[in-house]
Amino acid sequence: MGCCSSQRHTTRKKTYFTTNIRTFYRFGAVLGKGSFGTVKVGYKDGPDGEQVYAIKTINKVRVVDKTQMIQEEFEILRKMDHPNIVRFYEMYEDDMFIYFVMEHCKGGNLLERVLSKGSFDEIKASIVMRKLFSAIAYLHSQGVMHRDLKPENILLSNENDDADIKIIDFGLSKKLKESDKDKKKQLQRKQSQVGTPLYVAPEVVTGVYNQKCDDWAVGCIMYIVLCSEPPFFSEHLKELLQKIQFKPLSFPQEEWKGISQDCKQIVQGLLQKDPEKRMTCSEALNSDWAKKGFRKPLQIKINQKQGNINQSNDCTPVNTSNIKGLKRYAKSKQFKREVLRILINQLNDKQIDKLSQKFKELDKDEDGFITPQELSQIMAKLGFETTKNEIEQLIRNTNPEEQQALQIKYSQFLAATLDLKQYLNKERLWSLFRYFDVQDKKYITKEDIQQALKREGREEMASDKILTDLMMHDGKMTYKDFCQLMHDDMESDQFFEHFEKLHASPEKHRSISKT
């Protein structure tokens, strides 16, 4: 990938991590193949046993003239933070390949689910579509166009009927510039034709389009989910594009019997050929159809039907412990926050789902953030007496990098509401310590922290605030120092007594770097 300008090349090399990925992961079966490489299963030993990932392997020879596109995909992946967008973990590079390490979804894709089980009834479809509306509205609020939405790029977290959805494949995505984000006609100028023909919007055919091309694609997906057929089809590309541009939308009686008029109106709104008149995913999310209360009754129905099969859906409401955890997190040191974020990435689907359900309980408008109003409502309900200013300050302290936004992000909430008594056991602590101490020196240095953040493409986060905690230990943080920092709510005497009781010699623990 040496075709870049020296400035771009330098920026990229600061971001990508060049240590051999096989130091950390074992490769398994191929999950999928694309123009630029493959996606394989990746395995790594963790405190709860073997952890499974999806590793996208990009052949550098095939993308020698697409450096900027790969960089943009990477930047978008690592910054998106939403329950229904695939989680990005790490990135590596060697002489031949670039590797994205991501969340592994076991339930196949949405198209496979529709083909195997048939079209969804309206209640089940509303659950899926609400999540998709929320995720796309979130992307657009962050100035991102996906540009290749289709059922194959929507994965299901597991094989259960109530599985969460995850949007993947940001290879064609586009990040709007700040100057474009403030314009009503965001990025509506001549662009390359992208996407899969069945799902491209009429304006994409002409190459003049904006983020509303995603809304059209969501309309196509909703149509398929409800009747198992695409809204426009032809085996010949030219004829297909003409139908997309000019043929009126129809709802054949046989396929659409039993579907409400409100539901059809959402599909019609999303598949409006004029992008200026087209419904957005944000509007669909706030529509009467989406607000009818399909979400909770189905959750109850699923719990009653599968209560013993999928305990992760037996969601526990937000409680006082969660709010206290949020307050502790807001006061915690920056390095501890980074470790908790890494801990979140080590949890399995069931563990994450319990926390995710609580986030969704608070995120009433489903925009992907917790606002002061949403936090205030639940705190008042739980008996906390707080002022508006106190709540706003709590949010600022929780999200110090974006204090003006007054929002708690999804991953911040997960990290803040973890049950630390449950998860900070000796195996987990040792695993987290070894995440930094890759060379098994038995201590962590400034360079170890910087290298760990670099694996995640977050080297700019190696700030003075993170490193201050390390400097308090003369530049070397031992395992015991590390444990004390993670139990910073304990007094020193209390911690040392706790440490002696809880921890065996760390040398006896399994190394997570072993393959």
TrEMBL record:
Q: Name one GO molecular function term.
A: calcium ion binding
Which residues of this UniProt protein bind ATP?
Answer: K56
**Domain (Protein kinase): residue spans on this chain:** 25-290
One Pfam assignment: Pkinase
Name of the protein in question? Protein kinase domain containing protein
Domain EF-hand intervals: 350-385, 424-459
Keyword Kinase part of the UniProt annotation = yes
